[in-house]
Amino acid sequence: MANVGINEFKNGMKLLINNEPWNITDVDMVKPGKGQAFTRIKIKNLKTGRVVDKTCKSTDKIETADVMEYEYQYLYNDGETYYFMHPETFEQIEASKEAVGDNAKWLVEESMCVVTLWDNNPIVVQPPNFIEMKIVDTDPGLKGDTSGGGGKPATLESGAVVQIPLFVQIGEVIKVDTRTGEYSSRVKS
Amino acid sequence: MPDMWKSQCPLSVLQKRAFLLTKIREFFSKRNVLEVETPILSSSGNTDVNIESFTSDSINSDFSKSYLRTSPEFPLKRLLCSGIGDVFEIGKVFRKGEYSTTHNCEFTMLEWYRIEFDFYDLIQEVTELISELSKAFDCSVINIEILTFNQCFLNQLNINVFDVSTEELNKICHNFDYSGSQLTRDEALDYLFATQIQPGLNKQNITYVTHYPATQAALAEINPEDSNTALRFEVFYQGHELGNGYQELTHSQELLNRFIMDNKNRINNGSTEVQIDSNLIEAMKHGMPQCSGIAMGIDRLLMVLLGASTIHDVMPFNALNS
Question: What's the mean pLDDT when you consider all of chain B?
Fold first, then answer.
């Protein structure tokens, strides 16, 4: 990719530093009156989430990374590879277990995910903010308790474990916030 | 961003801005300093290596393009050479690529020149101006501190800028989180000044940093008593840099040499040459009076007087929605 002058940096631009893709989250400039301008950037590693500060001459150049985000539909996985499809072109892409990471437990077939491609390879898969999944295992709990006070762990279809209210039972479908991993509500079928 | 069409600057701030301009004009009117207006668009530009001009279509067929001014310095000096006497201008200036919490690429500059003033006379007048404005804006009483550039480095970093090697300076910059390409001596000093020295200045004071290294003289006279330093100062108030003043270089050949050197450095940096202002060189050959002058950023001054946290809080529109 092209080298971009640091004075053209803005939030959201993707950089290639030490062969890793980074996202700019903050840009500021320091400049003594008549002197050289310096640009301070805060960057986040797109693979590890690590955040670092970097200060360079505003006239320096840094290589940009070919990083794009697209919406893809999740199809299925074979334990090693996760398959996604573009909703309009029907083109299929494969994401590794590493790229999907912990988000694997929130992947529901046919749901729309945001896939980050670096040089056309998926490096991050972001599930929808809310997903619906069936409970496959939980303690039956006390019959007739509908107060919702307290909670219990429940295992979902994907193997994810979330805390649910006592009154929710095996076989019910629940809505979960994937950003926090918290139970949101029951879904009436 | 929502409502980009709207000014983020409340009416009360715009009123204070108008009040500030009135107060400044009163200050100079009482001292018989004449207000003038000079061209914003010029066929020649500022060669300063660290300042980039916006360019536009040519004004006349002798030149291929024109430059938006980065300060009114050159036409004001031409007026000084024709004998106008004490003079000031308040006007818009433009600097490409400058945008931060304390920068906007278009801003309002106050620049003035005083005949027969030396460096210290001008420092005295700047103090009087800032004190009067602070009073008018109900800001607290202020102390004055005058430090040389080297004294700042000795006090805060224990570095003698005239002793330290460029390699050592680069090492020190890396220890202070610099991670860009190799720095020249002056760039390293710029970095340390901007990130370490300036934030450490006493915010209660008006601080004058004087006697910059001769390599950072810009258009100031070299100190006749010490050729390592220039008769240049910067003024800081509440930790913000407000202005840059010189006991002015009056020698036309020396000025031309500095312009040519700037252009050489520009080419070495991969930047473009700037059309040298031959009218200014001619004017100075004719004769420039001994004088001192300073340029101050009015927006930043207003920001400081109002205790605003960014320069954009005191401008009706900025680079993102102009």
Answer: 95
Query: Going from the N-terminus, what domains does chain A have, and what CATH number goes with each?
Result: 3-63 (2.30.30.30), 67-126 (2.40.50.140), 130-187 (2.40.50.140)
- Is the CATH number 3.30.930.10 carried by domain B11-142+204-314? yes
pTM: 0.81
CA atoms B102, B173, B216, B266: torsion sign: negative
**Six-digit token string for B159:** 């570095």
Q: What pLDDT digit, counting tens, does each position of B70-90 carry?
A: 999 999 999 999 999 999 999
Q: How much is the mean pLDDT over chain A?
A: 88
Query: Which residues, listed in sequence order, are joined to residue A40 by a DSSP beta bridge?
Result: A28, A55
Total residues found in chain B within this entry:
322
pLDDT digits (tens, 9 = 90+) for A111-161: 999 999 998 899 999 999 999 999 999 988 665 555 556 789 999 988 899
Q: Render pLDDT for B300-310 as a digit per residue (tens, 0 to 9).
A: 999 999 999 99
ipTM, 2 dp = 0.87
Chain A residues touching residue B181 (CB < 8 angstroms): 56-57, 60
Name the A residues in 31-50 with CB < 8 Å from any B CB: 31-38
Nearest C-alpha of chain A: how many angstroms from B35? Answer: 24
Which of A3, A17, A29, A34 is the best residue to mutate to test the B interface, defined by the most B CB atoms within 10 Å of its own CB? A34
Residues A97 and A151: beta-carbon distance below 8 Å:
no
Set of chain A residues whose Cβ sits within 8 Å of the Cβ of B198: 32
- Interstrand relation of B55-56 and B66-68 (parallel, antiparallel or unpaired): antiparallel
Q: Test B50 with A35 for CB contact under 8 angstroms.
A: yes
Cα torsion for B185, B187, B188, B189, to the nearest 10°? 90
d(CA B223, CA A46): 52
CB A107 within 8 A of CB A82: yes
- Calpha distance B162→B213 (Å, rounded): 8
Nearest to B28 by CA among B111, B144, B146, B145: B111
